[in-house]
Specification:
The protein has about 350 residues and is of the alpha/beta class. It has one domain: Luciferase-like domain (TIM Barrel, Alpha-Beta Barrel), CATH 3.20.20. The protein is about 50% helix and about 15% strand. It has 13 helices and 12 strands. The strands form 2 sheets. It has an 8-stranded parallel β-barrel with strand order 1-2-3-5-8-9-10-12, surrounded by 7 helices. The protein has a two-stranded antiparallel sheet with strand order 6-7. The longest helix has 22 residues. It is globular. The relative contact order is 0.14.
Amino acid sequence: MHVGLSVIFQGSASRTDHEVYADELALARLAEPLGFDSVWSVEHHFTSYTMVPDPLQFLTYMAGCTTHIQLGTMVVVLPWHDPIRVAEGVALLDNLSGGRVILGIGRGLGRVEFGGFGVSMEESRARFVEAAQLVLEGLEKGRVQYEGTYYQQAPRDLRPAPFKSFRDRTYASAVSPESAKIMAELGVGIMIVPQKPWEQAIAELNDYRELYREVRGAEPPPPATASWVFCDPDPVRARELGEQFVGRYYETVIDHYELTNDHLAGTKGYEYYGRMQGYLEKHGTSSAIKAFTDLHVIGTPQQCIDKIEDIRRMAGNDMFMGVFAYGDMGAAESDRNLRLFASEVMPAVKQMV
């Protein structure tokens, strides 16, 4: 299995933004020496939730720091961008890195971000579909041309031109069942960032697979999965601190996406997330945090191996991306977490088939 390292640059009350960047860049630069297959980052704006407004810019820096690992976006949020600029940026990074880009795309959820860019959330799904069509076709043909409701693009060549296909290295995050249908029609793989019970996620993944076969007339690619990881030799410490750090991270999810607010239930295209708000109201934040932490990889090295094997068995994924620094975890703890995973967990994970 392919194993990646994702850095998210989450803000901290005890460190300046510059200090957070220094600490997590140090982790990112360990990816290649420690034997990871790829390095990834996310896209978010305007808050300390995660502080990567341009994953392609970050990955360009990482391309210069590395020689062979792949470079993944988790994800580029297409409705927030001019899609031709996304296509140009991806093609440029792929040329700079010798073809090492893995492209992840998504449509976004944060009201603070849509508002900051002046983009209606109710248009996000349609904007995502149009932008994805424009970007993916442009990367395949080296030329963009599009006439849609939201995007009109006169014919133009991409320079530098893409030099190999992205069809086997493009993934989209899909949380709602409606998004899974869109991804099947686009012909892209699914990236699962666990947020719901695995049984539900797998049922929706199987629906995507059936739709993919119907629409594309081919077998769908294996999904990629991501997880927040906390690994420690002491099972008690692993469980206590893992639940603490992952739980505090999920508190920032609730805050950033305003999941205790009722606005999502009334926003077209986000009705699924409105049900998440209903769950929080019914069961309480503590229950939701516990449910979230149970989805992720927490434990001793062997427990982490077993959890990742369970995920692989359920999802059939051939890629696993771990996040090792988050919440209020300090730099020393993050470094220890990463190095222990790399030395005692990753060799076994890479052998999974």
